Amino acid sequence: MSLLLPDAGLLFWMLLAFGVVFAVLYKYGFPVITSMIDARKKYIDDALKEAKEANERIADIEEQCNGLVEEARQKQMEILREATAAREQIMKEAREKADAETEKIIAEAKREIEQQRTDAMNAVREEAAKVAVAVAEKILRKELAVKDRQQAYIEKLVDEVKDGIKESDSK
User: Fold this and answer.
1) For residue 153, which of 143, 163, 162 has the smallest C-alpha distance?
2) Range of the domain at 131
3) pTM (2 decimals)?
């Protein structure tokens, strides 16, 4: 017997044992293994299909989110525009109200100034009249101190009144 070459009997029994093991595995082992491999392949295919569907759903959701974000931005811009318009309107109304109030105050001040001017003019006239009366009184006292002059002045006044009556009758 050589170490590198087995005997024919050993070779026969090894082939027979291998054939029996192969037959048993072929009958009972390989179908179980192939069914497990097929089941695993089916599970992986289903998982890939579900992952693809999930990715599509995620893409749809992202599109919806982008649409909502864009809609929110548009609403934000619209709200900002409305707020700006409202601010401008409020400022315009405040300016108009301030202008009206200013005009009212100016008109009131002008009226008050005019009233004070009129009062001052009346006071000046009244004072001038008092001075004129006082001066006239002093002049008349001096002039009428003499009786002849008093009589002449009275006759002159009577003549003027008669002339005034004649003129008013002729009209």
Assistant:
1) 143
2) 9-170
3) 0.40
